[in-house]
Recover the amino acids of this structure.
């Protein structure tokens, strides 16, 4: 058991090295010159050469690669080419801003998806199930920025109950004294509960956007998984034994728990990329919007830093998932089964983009 | 098929089930019509207004008899632009899916064994750990940003899923009798992979291809919404929505609503087609 988790950690560490290589390669191996992307089409050769030496692009390939690898592993992600601020500290101050709506958003998706999917599975082919399928199809066809704009239009423009999409604080509010650099954390430390609750109020629309957007695919998975299990012999037997419906449901749930958790981690990885778009709609000062800005400007260290942080976060998610599944399901404790779960993961078409 | 039960209620139930199935088929045909019809309409239909012509005198007009869907902030006709967008958005997503298929499926079919197979799967895992939109934006930014670059970037992002899927199919089918027989009579690995394994797994891959096209459309729209990719004045749904946001905040909903509806309709149609193929496959398996 512990050996299994350690082996997963080792694999994750190897994958991390692969990830660093990928983020290095993404910028170095793709056609196009970052210096030209940075300076524009009309840069003089001298300027291009200066940027090249600044980025270390004039060094041999292996020197660049090993240098990048060792710097990254020691935690130095470089400095932004445009603002000059350190990428790692920038990420650390912005990450809480993103998590403050991402985590509740995913929790909302979990609750809504779980509840509606279960309800639809128990009402299979009846009105509630058809209504559920109808709404899920509409939600699944909606890109997250369309959903965000729809919510903005209804709740801000028409009903006037949501705040304007101008970021985390309104201009009238005093920013809390600088301690950690992250505004929500500083507000808590300084005891400015008014400011903190106003931040939460502004986070409601992003939370609902994330929640609804991810509730749809999750609910669909819950429904189809439960449908299969509810028709299985062991559930029939449990019912025949006269177990209470609640208990039958618990047994059914323990059967699909593993695949649901896998799906949740996939959704988490997808939500990180959705965050960039939602943040740009709501002008939210999180990691997503910041990195997107860097990407659009061709800010190489920012791109690499973001790719690394997001990749590491989802790798961590996968490791925690594997550990949890092993804890919950004794069958996966033998090594041979590890491959089977992965195969099941890849065996069905998925719609997450 | 089930044997005919004597009871009337079961007959009625079967009749209802038949109607239910048919309604699914009708829906799928309508969806396919939308997918094929919209780009054709954009290419061959004479649009009521020039989609690229700004008009200073008719800016931000509400829908009326001249401008059916109203006009946007530059005075361009929303209806014509919504139709015109299909000319670019749909073919790009289809092309990206096709390239992803061509790269991903052979890789997956052959990546079942050996060091090379393991290596391919690790690369696929590493790609799966990255946020999609970021890879797409980075590669488009670095490649320049024309239509071909958008196609390549999206194909790159979508290919890993085809690798996974076709690999899973190859592994589960390889131990089946007919594949063993094919190997035993000396078929080449390529023939086994395509003629025997792929032919029996294409259903799942087709469903994934349809879903990938839908996902590609949504990614393209998101990219255009962020201002990456196809450059103005060529209309695209994502860019139209981006242009309309400032009007939406003022309550002028039409510049955003119609391209968003078109996007919804097309992605929804693709999802419906995928569902129909999946149902069909399940029924075929059931009767076997």
């Amino acid at each position: 058991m512990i050996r299994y988790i350690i082996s997963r950690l080792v694999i994750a560490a190897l994958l991390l090295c692969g990830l660093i290589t990928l983020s290095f390669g993404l910028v170095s191996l793709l056609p196009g010159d970052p210096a030209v992307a940075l300076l524009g089409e009309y840069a003089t050769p001298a300027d291009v050469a200066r940027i090249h030496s600044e980025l270390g692009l004039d060094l041999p390939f292996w020197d660049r690669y090993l240098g990048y690898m060792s710097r990254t592993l020691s935690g130095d992600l470089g400095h932004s080419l445009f603002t000059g601020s350190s990428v790692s500290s920038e990420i650390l101050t912005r990450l809480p801003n993103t998590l403050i709506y991402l985590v509740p958003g995913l929790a909302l998706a979990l609750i809504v998806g779980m509840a509606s999917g279960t309800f639809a599975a128990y009402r299979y082919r009846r009105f509630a199930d058809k209504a559920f399928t109808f709404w899920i199809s509409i939600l699944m066809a909606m890109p997250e920025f369309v959903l965000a704009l729809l919510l903005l239009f209804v709740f801000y423009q028409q009903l006037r109950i949501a705040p304007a999409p101008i970021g985390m604080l309104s201009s009238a509010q005093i920013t809390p004294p600088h301690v950690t650099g992250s505004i929500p954390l500083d507000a808590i430390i300084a005891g400015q509960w008014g400011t903190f609750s106003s931040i939460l109020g502004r986070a409601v629309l992003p939370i609902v956007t994330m929640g609804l957007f991810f509730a749809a695919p999750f609910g669909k998975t819950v429904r189809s998984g439960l449908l299969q299990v509810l028709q299985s012999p062991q559930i029939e037997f449990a019912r025949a034994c006269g177990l209470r419906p609640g208990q039958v449901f618990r047994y059914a749930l323990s059967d699909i728990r593993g695949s649901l958790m896998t799906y949740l981690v996939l959704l988490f990885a997808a939500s990180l990329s959705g965050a960039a778009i939602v943040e740009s709609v709501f002008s939210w000062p999180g990691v997503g919007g910041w990195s997107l800005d860097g990407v659009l400007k061709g800010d190489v260290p920012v791109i690499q830093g973001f790719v690394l942080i997001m990749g590491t976060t989802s790798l961590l998610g996968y490791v925690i998932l594997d550990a949890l599944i092993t804890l919950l399901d004794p069958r996966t404790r033998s090594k041979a089964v590890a491959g089977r779960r992965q195969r099941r993961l890849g065996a069905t078409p998925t719609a997450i983009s | 098929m089930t044997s005919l039960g004597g009871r009337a209620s079961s007959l009625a139930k079967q009749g209802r089930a038949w109607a239910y199935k048919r309604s699914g088929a009708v829906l799928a045909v309508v969806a396919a019509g939308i997918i094929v019809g919209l780009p054709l309409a954009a290419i061959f239909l004479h649009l009521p207004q020039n989609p690229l012509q700004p008009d200073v005198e008719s800016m931000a007009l509400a829908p009326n008899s001249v401008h059916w869907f109203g006009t946007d902030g530059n005075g361009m006709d929303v209806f014509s632009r919504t139709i015109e967008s299909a000319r670019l958005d749909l073919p790009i997503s289809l092309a990206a899916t096709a390239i992803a298929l061509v790269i991903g499926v052979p890789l997956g079919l052959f990546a079942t064994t050996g060091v090379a197979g393991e290596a391919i799967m690790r690369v696929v895992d590493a790609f799966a750990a990255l946020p999609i939109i970021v890879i797409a934006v980075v590669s488009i930014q670095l490649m320049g940003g024309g239509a071909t670059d958008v196609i390549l970037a999206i194909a790159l992002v979508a290919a890993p899923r085809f690798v996974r899927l076709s690999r899973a199919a190859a592994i589960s089918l390889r131990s089946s009798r007919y594949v063993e027989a094919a190997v035993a009579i000396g078929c080449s690995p390529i023939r086994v992979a395509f003629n025997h394994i792929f032919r029996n797994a294409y259903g799942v891959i087709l469903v994934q291809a349809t879903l990938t096209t839908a996902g590609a459309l949504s990614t393209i729209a998101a990219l255009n919404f962020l201002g990456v990719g196809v450059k103005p004045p060529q209309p695209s749904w994502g860019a139209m929505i981006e242009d309309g946001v400032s009007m939406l905040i003022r309550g002028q909903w039409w510049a955003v609503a119609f391209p968003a509806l078109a996007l919804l309709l097309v992605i929804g149609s693709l999802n419906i087609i995928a569902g129909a193929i999946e149902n069909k496959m399940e029924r075929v398996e059931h009767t076997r």
